[in-house]
User: Fold MFS transporter from Microbacterium mitrae.
Amino acid sequence: MTEHRGAFIDLRPFKASPAFARMWVGSTLAGLGGQMTLVAVMLHMYELTESTFAVSMIAVAGLVPMIVAGLYGGMLADAFDRRTVALLAAIVTLGSTIVLAALAWSHNTTEASLYILSIINSAANSIVMATRAAIVPRLIPRDLLPAASALQGITVGIMVMAGPALGGLLVAFTDYAWTYTIDVALMSFLFLGLWTLPHLPPEGETVRPGLRSLVDGWNFIRTSPNIRMQYVMDIIAMTFGHPVALFPAVGAIILGGGSVTVGVLTASIAAGAFICSIFSGPFGRVRWQGVGIANSIIVFGIATALFGAVLLLATWGVFAPDIVDETHANIALIALACLFLAIAGAADNVSAIFRNTMMQAAVPDSMRGRLQGVFTVVVTGGPRLGALYMGTLATIGAIWVPPLLGGIIIVVLVATLLRASASFRSYDARDPKP
Assistant:
């Protein structure tokens, strides 16, 4: 296939596989609704408790179930038809959102119900994500995998850029029930992409879900230094550089603007990823993807630290109006915070493109479901550890401390790991080795 030479995003995966295109559309619309609900649940919890720690615990409470579901879902994807596995998990995700909406309409939402339904939703969604990622290399050729990963960046950009902003606006101008209900409608589009997929039984030797399957996956990771290193670097980035749990308090008392500011800050991260994906054409020509992952995470760490510095300036009253609360905002510092969050989102997207490509190109199909399960646990579990780090440190210290300190930690640790790993530095996309 002719190499894509332009600067703009490579759209050839859509033409090469209509099934991939349908799955992309369904996942994007469902993700949009999911992000709306994520912001709404955070705001709902903050309204009930007025506690940043309680907000951060929404993510933390689902960590263990999400890990178990991601690992088991990966084993299911390597043992059974991947289309069926994804569809069944999507039904559970949809069901939990329907219950959330019903509770909101009946005014029976409690802290416990928000925690429980968030746990169910995140666990089922981790199975969908792992299975869907394992499906992609079966739909398109290997040379188009970087382009497919960049299109995933467009998905993330759309759903995280528009979803939180819409969620914040809907909560501000309607209520939680309407926000959750709209998510139910959007999530139904996930079935568009999954139902129309061809049957995708696993290739090669299959192992039924269980201890042996899990041990085989672990042994593969143990002997795959490049895959293992990208996991470690991503966990570092997401643990120390994911400040979303701070946003409700930032909007309420630091920068002002309430739920609208929460939506705008969250959307800024996605805006960076979206713009980066639009100009992702050259990424498919990058050979040294290990170095690309490390350098982009270092930029991510710098941007995170600068965001923390903006919050520090806000506590000093820089550019602040006479009153800062949910209806009076520090517009100048909000704009600066959005800039640094957008840079962080762009850098994270570059890392994600190379990490996804490495996972899909270097891992054999018979092992891909389990490795994508671990990958999903890392990608979704890291931010939950980050929520615990951010919420705890902000509670015992100040709001600006965790992002400023975390960004510095990311830069130091990732630069050290890159220097120590010759294999990761020499990873060649033309000869992918796990």
Observations:
- The chain has a mean pLDDT of 83.
- Residues 47 and 248 are 10 Å apart (CA to CA).
- The chain has 18 helices and no strands.
- The radius of gyration is 21 Å.
